[in-house]
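REQUEST ID: PR-0412
SUBMITTED BY: lab tech R.K.
PRIORITY: routine
TASK: structure prediction, single protein chain
INPUT:
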Amino acid sequence: MQDTDDIDNLTLASFVDCQLDAAHKEWVIRAMENDPDVRERVYRLRRAKDLMKLGFGDARAPTQTLPRLKAGRWRLGSLGLAATILVLITSFVAGYLGYHSGKLVGESVHAVAPVAHRQTDRVLLHVSESDPKQFAAVLAYMQKFLEKHRKNGGRVAVVANAGGLDLMRAGVSPFEKQIIAMMRDYDNVHFIACASSIRELRRKGVEPIIIEKIDSTLPAMDQIISHVQQGWSYIKVDTLINI
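STATUS: complete
OUTPUT:
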């Protein structure tokens, strides 16, 4: 994968729109963790997107058919076009709507706050593969973390998407009892199941039953961005073990 200096705004806009493949998502997330400039660029793009929703959420596409462009003119795909538009209007939207809707956005659950410093006592684990070795690594890390931070109020969360969702499925997870016990015994433990992954399984005709009390309200990418922005340290679970 390229160096983080090679990440352009089109890639970051595609990340914000959840339109990158798994490898490129991981690349951007790691860049956000290590590079404050990349984090700030992602937050600006996401803020612009949120402001667009506030300002134009009720807008409807025109019913009139638009004339076709001649062949050979502007052959951007839908992904490239959407990303390009988002980048071009970022400055305008952030300035205009940010001024007129600042208070409303500040109270929104999606509002973007200043980036916090990374905290070693707040850790977000990310698992995206249906691999028992990775599941075991998650639970082992969490247990050690809780023992280490027993007295200082540290917090640990695990977010699962794609194949990693199996860790949090009732009747499927090999660690279901341990997860239930951990949520019962510790109030500083948080398990998060990706809402987008759940929808994708349903689209395929599978109805996943998530273990009770696990948060499944938002997509994994939204959760990761939000936690990293608030200063949580991000760890991809496959880095904890030798596969």
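NOTES: Residues 54-67, 71-76, 89-116 have pLDDT under 50 and may be disordered.
REVIEWED BY: pending
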